[in-house]
Amino acid sequence: MGEDLGRYGLLRRQIVDGRSDANIRFDELRGLLMKLGFIERTRGSHHIFRKEGVAEGLNLQRDGNHAKPYQVRQVRQILQRYHL
Fold this sequence. Notes:
The chain is 40% helix and 26% strand. It has helices at residues 7-17, 26-35, 69-81, and strands spanning 39-43, 46-51, 54-60, 62-63, 66-67. The protein starts with 6 loop residues before the first helix and ends with a helix.
């Protein structure tokens, strides 16, 4: 997917740049993953994301309104590894 995602394109760039991992809102990160074709399954407070063609799953949890910084780093690694 290109940078034509509008606000999700900006969010993706912010994640890939890696300058503000602690300031990524959980709902925005969730929305980005859904826009990129990930399927979400929720088990308690865990939001598990899978995508065909991506070997790794992502297990995200809220930290208040934000995503946990180490989980944003995991998302960045997936975005870069699979050129998403």
